[in-house]
Amino acid sequence: MPQIVVYSSDWCPYCSRAKALLAKKGVAFEEIRVDGQPQLRADMARKAGRTSVPQIWIGDHHVGGCDDLYALERAGKLDPLLR
């Protein structure tokens, strides 16, 4: 199973939704909270090319945000990425 990394914020409803979907899938993920951590947020923005949270990686694949994760699920493409 590939490593899953989720950059998130404590008060972000999209972060909660994304983490809930991953939990429903039964996969472990590393959560990196960027609240009050400007260097972590800057690292995330540099890697993702986006400043919003969540930003999600599955292995080396940058999924994007919550909407992107759910779009993969609807298209039937999330499970193969998680294998």
Automatic annotation (TrEMBL):
SUPFAM superfamilies associated with the record: Thioredoxin-like
Pfam families with a match to the protein in the record: Glutaredoxin (PF00462)
Domain Glutaredoxin: residue ranges: 4-63
Alphabetical keyword list: Cytoplasm, Disulfide bond, Electron transport, Redox-active center, Transport
PROSITE patterns registered for this protein in UniProt: GLUTAREDOXIN_1, GLUTAREDOXIN_2
Function statement: Has a glutathione-disulfide oxidoreductase activity in the presence of NADPH and glutathione reductase. Reduces low molecular weight disulfides and proteins.
Similarity-based family: Belongs to the glutaredoxin family.
Protein name: Glutaredoxin
Organism whose genome encodes this protein: Pseudomonas quercus
Lineage summary: Bacteria, Pseudomonadati, Pseudomonadota, Gammaproteobacteria, Pseudomonadales
Gene that this sequence comes from: grxC
